[in-house]
């Protein structure tokens, strides 16, 4: 299989890994990847007709386009749902740490992040996109990417250190009464 279809097949594992990080659930991630690939096939002409676009041609340029589709599908699904489902399944993350407790702690901390922060953290840290690329994928300003990433990293540090994720308490401690 060559061309566009072959590139989609080659990028499917990376899309699945990213979707697992976004959703925290294998079944939801598989559905999201399937919807993303289906939409990419349906609208392949949009990718090919835009050689001057920021994602360019080829597999390197196709991944950001697919991630953009995936994030928009995810946002649409979140807007439609009133119910948030929490699971205890872990995303398949390859890395040097083989400690299952650490994987569980990371997964739980990641699940506690707000959706916009989690999306930015996954794009920059897991998918290795630049701030500019992540901004284009999420259709937000680059400064917003940087601030969400900083907040996400700080929240992850707090959660992994065992601190409560209460944001109002930290904000109240930062404010001092001045007479």
Which structural traits does this protein have?
179 residues, mainly alpha, Butyryl-CoA Dehydrogenase, subunit A, domain 3, 9 helices, globular
Report on this model:
With about 180 residues, the chain is mainly alpha-helical. The chain has a single domain (about 5-175), classed as PhyR, sigma-like (SL) domain (Butyryl-CoA Dehydrogenase, subunit A, domain 3, Up-down Bundle), CATH 1.20.140.160. Helices cover about 70% and strands about 0% of the residues. The chain contains nine helices and no strands. It has helices spanning about 5-25, 25-40, 45-50, 60-80, 100-110, 115-125, 130-140, 140-160, 165-175. Helix 1 packs across helix 4, helix 4 (about 60-80) crosses helix 7 and helix 6 crosses helix 8.
Low-confidence stretches: 49-59, 168-173
Number of helical stretches of at least 4 residues:
9
Structural class: mainly alpha
Mean pLDDT: 78
Give the helix level as a range of percent: over 70%
Q: Tell me the strand percentage band.
A: under 5%
The main pleated sheet reads as: none
CATH architecture: Up-down Bundle
The rounded distance between the terminal residues' Cα atoms is 73 Å
Number of domains: 1
Q: Let me know the number of strands.
A: 0
Q: Over all CA atoms, what is the radius of gyration?
A: 18 Å
Q: Can you identify the CATH class?
A: Mainly Alpha
CATH superfamily: PhyR, sigma-like (SL) domain
Quote the CATH topology.
Butyryl-CoA Dehydrogenase, subunit A, domain 3
Shape estimate: globular
Q: What are the secondary-structure elements, in order, as H or E?
A: HHHHHHHHH
């Amino acid at each position: 299989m060559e061309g566009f279809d072959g590139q989609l097949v080659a990028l499917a594992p990376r899309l699945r890994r990213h979707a697992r990080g976004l959703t925290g659930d294998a079944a939801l991630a598989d559905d999201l990847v399937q919807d993303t690939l289906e939409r990419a096939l349906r609208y392949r002409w949009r990718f090919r007709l835009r050689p001057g676009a920021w994602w360019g041609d080829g597999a390197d340029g196709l991944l950001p386009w697919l991630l953009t589709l995936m994030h928009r599908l995810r946002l649409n699904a979140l807007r439609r749902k009133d119910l948030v489902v929490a699971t205890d399944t872990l995303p398949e993350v390859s890395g040097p740490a083989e400690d299952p407790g650490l994987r569980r702690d990371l997964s739980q901390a990641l699940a506690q992040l707000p959706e916009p922060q989690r999306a930015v953290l996954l794009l920059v840290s897991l998918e290795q996109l630049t701030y500019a690329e992540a901004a284009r994928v999420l259709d937000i300003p680059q400064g917003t990417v940087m601030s969400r990433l900083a907040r996400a990293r700080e929240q992850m540090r707090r959660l992994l250190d065992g601190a409560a994720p209460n944001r109002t308490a930290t904000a109240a401690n930062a404010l001092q009464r001045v007479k």
